[in-house]
Amino acid sequence: MADNPALDPKTAKILPWVVAVAFFMQMLDGTILNTALPTMAKDLHTNPLQMQSVVIAYMLTVALIIPASGWLADKFGIKRVFLFAIALFTAGSLACGLSPTLEVIVACRIIQGIGGALMVPVGRLVVLRAYPREQLVTVLSFITIPGLIGPLIGPTLGGFLVEYASWHWIFFINIPVGIIGILSTMKYMPYLARGGELYPFDRIGFILFSAFMLTITLGLEGIGELHLAYAPMVLLIVFGIVCLVGYVLYARYIPRPLFSPDLFRVRNFSVGILGNLFARLGNGAMPFLTPLLLQIGLGYSPMNAGLSMVPMTIGAVIAKSAATRLVNRFGYRLILTINTLLLGLMIALFSTISKEMNYGLMMVIFTVFGIINSMQFTAMNTVTLVDLSDEQASSGNSLLSVIMQLSMSMGVAIAAAILGEFTGASSLLQARDVIAAFAKTYLCLGFLAAISTVIFIHIRPGSGKVPPKNPQPPVSADH
Question: Per UniProt, what is one GO molecular function of this protein (predicted)?
Answer without folding.
Answer: transmembrane transporter activity
